[in-house]
Amino acid sequence: MNAIAALQLVARHWDDLHALRTSRPHDAWPPASLQAYLRTVEEYDPADRSAPVRLHVVDTIRIVEAVLVALADQLAARVQSSAVGPAPADWAARGWTPADRDRRNALSAADSTDPARWPFVGTRTGRQAAVWLAARVRGDAGPFRPLTGGELDEVARVASGAAERVEHALGIRRRSVGTGRACSCGDELLLEGGDGRPPSLVCRACARSLTLAEPAAA
Ligand SMILES: [Zn+2]
Fold it and tell me: In this structure, is residue 140 part of a structural domain?
């Protein structure tokens, strides 16, 4: 996934993350009913249980937001030009006409409130940072110099980590957990799922695969 796709994924799913933070426990993966079905509840990663899943979402929002906002702050300090100032107090002594002064003040007001600018103060969300960073990677117009190769690499690295965390928290990346049950070949069967498609039991050693009909949520 390239930097722009990763940042767009974060921005697109920002509301979903906030919604998931307060979702009901049975939205966790693997669902409790499936865990009971497999009778291997204690084998699962505790991070996949209901309450910790939601704490994990809160952590994801906090970490992704902190990382993306910090990166936008650093990058904006380097690539964003200072806003054009208003007309100087001694505009008349400098030979400016009132029309010159008004033009300069209008330009200054427009530039300082240009929505393309990264705000160094006020509310800055993870989504805002993702959208702003994606625009810099694309080279969208605005009061910015182009990013250097090193800066593009840095954004790509951070964006990829952020997207991975968001995908994991939302369960849109297929994951696998050990079941503690042995396949007929002797290797451990893994339970794969969590991405919205039917879960399956798979063995990596002999490639045996069994799609499960997920029991209805209790
Ligand atoms: Zn096997």
Answer: yes
